[in-house]
Specification:
Blueprint (H helix, E strand, L loop, with lengths): L8 E8 L2 E5 L4 E10 L3 E5 L7 E5 L3 E6 L10 E7 L4 E19 L3 E2 L3 E10 L3 E6 L2 E2 L6 E8 L3 E8 L8 E9 L2 E9 L17 E3 L2 E3 L7 E4 L2 E4 L9
Parallel strand pairs: 2-8
Antiparallel strand pairs: 1-3, 3-6, 4-7, 5-6, 7-8, 8-10, 9-10, 10-14, 11-12, 11-15, 13-14, 15-16, 17-18, 19-20
Protein name: Ig-like domain-containing protein
Keywords: Disulfide bond, Signal
Organism: Goodea atripinnis
Length: 241
């Protein structure tokens, strides 16, 4: 009498595809198959609304259909696992959802160590950010530049940092975010310092303004101070021959 021994084998999982790239609103189909002894139980593990996916189980494979994918699904990892009495094996599907930029918020200036105009922007691929001041493209330099403080799969949180801005930096700021799938823009008004208040009544009729400084014109000055001495304006010094 022959005795048969059943060889136990740890499950092996095959998942197709392993990474998928699709535009927002698109659909994805994936197939997970497994082998092993005894025959393993195959299942998908995903944290998504039930109306967004459909699972079709067959004998040695299980099909998954995802629909109406959104930016919130970008970077999501979905697990297919196979388990029998010997052990468990997993394979993963990663979603890369493409979508145009969206400026979630653009706030008024805040003062910390430097002045900062905070923003939050989403987009995949990461969008290019451009700033405009009074409809003129802002040329970023050391004293005025974009700073990203926190970056996730979908979002960038940062600010336009300004070091010691003056009244000439007041006005409307526009943030434009662009990638190959579209763009978005928002505006905010900034008031860093009140402009100088120079009233015409504060100046004499002969006063002039040089830069931001009011300088009165003095009629018939009698004396000029020079190197500690006083000389009349209409005096001449006779020099010996």
């Amino acid at each position: 009498m022959k005795r048969c021994m059943l060889l136990a084998v740890v499950p092996k999982v095959e998942l197709t595809p392993k990474t998928v790239t699709v535009m927002e609103g698109g659909d994805v189909k994936a197939v997970c198959s497994a082998s092993g002894s005894p025959a393993p139980v195959i299942q998908w593990t995903l944290d998504m609304p039930s109306n967004q996916y459909e699972i079709n189980s067959l004998e040695t494979k299980i099909n998954l259909t995802l629909s109406d994918l959104s930016p919130d699904d970008n970077g999501r990892v979905i697990v297919c696992s196979a388990e029998n009495m010997v052990g468990q094996t997993e394979a993963t599907l990663q979603l890369n959802i493409l979508f145009p930029p969206k400026i979630q918020q653009l706030l008024g200036p805040e003062r910390d160590h430097h002045w900062c105009i905070p923003f939050t922007v989403t987009g995949n691929p990461k969008p290019e950010l451009l700033w405009y001041h009074k409809n003129e493209l802002l040329q970023e330099q050391d004293y005025i530049r974009t700073m990203i403080h926190e970056s996730t799969e979908n979002e960038d949180h940062g600010c336009l940092q300004l070091v010691n801005p003056t009244h000439i930096h007041n006005g409307e700021y526009k943030l434009v975010a662009q990638n190959e799938y579209g763009g978005d823009e928002k505006t905010v008004t900034a008031q860093f310092i009140d402009p100088p208040n120079i009233s015409p009544t504060d100046m004499g009729p002969d006063a002039v303004i040089i830069g931001m400084t009011k300088i009165p014109v003095i009629e018939n000055p009698q004396y000029f101070r020079n190197s500690g001495s006083m000389l009349k304006a209409d005096t001449c010094e006779l020099l010996p021959r």
